[in-house]
């Protein structure tokens, strides 16, 4: 039985993976899946895909497309979440910043270069008609680093998934001042070249099992309660999040890939676009 190591963030989006692993659903179908958590997010997973530390990743669409264009020998094998990601724009609760215009010219805390928090700072700046070439960043690695950086005024704002950070807004660590949704499907599953060459059949089985879980995920009895308890969320917040979230069992569309590449190019985050066939891989049926 071949093993597939999958990377992902420790967030509520990924509960279907944990349920499949814990209930033995992958192994029942002849593939062993090991989950490896990356609290640092997309930038760290891109690095792990490049090095072969992981076979596949549940990863932000814009982050992995940018890294593939920049030489990562990985490809997208499926959309995971087809709805947008709601990025909350947060400041320290004790700061004087009250609205998004107050943040013009300040420094953004980001997990690392190439991460979602990095790329979405550009998307937000463009929305606000700020000069994207003058953006400033403080690398903080993870959520704990962001808390410290904002508290110590080493950075002034931090963009992270709205509901993941909601408990920190509730307990007055952060203040939420705005939301910035991604203009495309937010999470995809990408696999590196070696795994596509050597574990293609296992990757296909992995997706079939996962898709069986996600297809009716929101209809499962008490799934909202399980999510709230496991991820330290208020039940009302989980229910709002579930209403906004759609799991996908399809490949990422040409239109979505073109939209991401156009935006990355417009923001000078890539030098040029590449062929879609170099970004996306269709596993054999």
Biggest sheet layout = 5 strands, mixed
In the CATH hierarchy, what is the class of the largest domain?
A: Alpha Beta
CATH architecture of the largest domain: 3-Layer(aba) Sandwich
**Overall average pLDDT:** 95
Assigned CATH superfamily of the largest domain: Periplasmic binding protein-like II
Label the structural class: alpha/beta
Question: What is shown here, in short?
Answer:
It contains 12 helices and 10 strands.
Structure notes:
The structure is a single chain. The protein is α/β, with parallel strands linked by helices. It has two domains: 3-84 and 184-278, Periplasmic binding protein-like II (D-Maltodextrin-Binding Protein, domain 2); 86-181, D-Maltodextrin-Binding Protein, domain 2, CATH 3.40.190.10. Helices cover 39% and strands 21% of the residues. It has helices spanning 15-22, 25-28, 42-51, 61-69, 116-127, 143-151, 166-170, 193-198, 200-215, 223-230, 235-244, 254-266; strands spanning 3-8, 32-37, 56-60, 74-81, 86-92, 107-110, 136-139, 157-161, 174-181, 187-192. Strands 2-1-3-10-4 form a five-stranded mixed sheet, with helices on both faces. Strands 7-6-8-5-9 form a five-stranded mixed sheet, with helices on both faces. Strand 6 (107-110), helix 5 (116-127) and strand 7 form a beta-alpha-beta unit. Helix 1 packs across helix 9 and helix 10 (223-230) packs across helix 11 (235-244). The longest helix has 16 residues, at 200-215. It is globular.
């Amino acid at each position: 039985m071949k093993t597939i190591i999958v990377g992902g963030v420790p967030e509520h989006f990924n509960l279907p993976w944990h349920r499949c692993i814990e209930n033995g659903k992958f192994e029942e179908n002849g593939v062993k899946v090991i989950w490896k958590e990356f609290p640092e997010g997309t930038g760290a997973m891109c690095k792990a895909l490049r090095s072969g530390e992981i076979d596949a990743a549940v990863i932000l669409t814009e982050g992995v497309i940018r890294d593939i264009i920049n030489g990562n020998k990985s490809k997208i094998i499926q959309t995971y979440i087809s709805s947008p990601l709601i990025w909350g724009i947060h400041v320290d609760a004790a700061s004087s910043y009250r609205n998004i215009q107050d943040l013009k010219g300040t420094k953004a805390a980001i997990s690392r270069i190439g991460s979602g928090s990095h790329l979405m700072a550009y998307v937000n700046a463009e929305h606000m008609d700020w000069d994207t070439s003058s953006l400033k960043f403080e690398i903080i690695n993870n959520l704990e680093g962001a808390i410290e950086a904002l508290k110590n005024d080493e950075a002034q704002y931090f963009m992270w998934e709205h509901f993941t950070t909601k408990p920190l807004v509730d307990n007055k660590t952060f203040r939420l001042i705005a939301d910035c949704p991604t203009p495309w499907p937010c999470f995809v599953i990408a696999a590196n070249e070696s795994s596509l060459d050597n574990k293609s059949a296992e990757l296909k089985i992995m997706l079939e099992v996962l898709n069986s879980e996600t297809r009716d995920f929101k209809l499962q009895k008490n799934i909202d309660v399980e999510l709230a308890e496991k991820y330290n969320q208020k039940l009302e917040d989980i229910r709002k999040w579930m209403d906004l979230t759609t799991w996908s069992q399809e490949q990422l569309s040409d239109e979505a890939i073109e939209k991401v590449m156009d935006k990355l190019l417009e923001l000078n985050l890539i030098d040029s676009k590449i062929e879609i066939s170099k970004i996306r891989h269709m596993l054999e049926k």
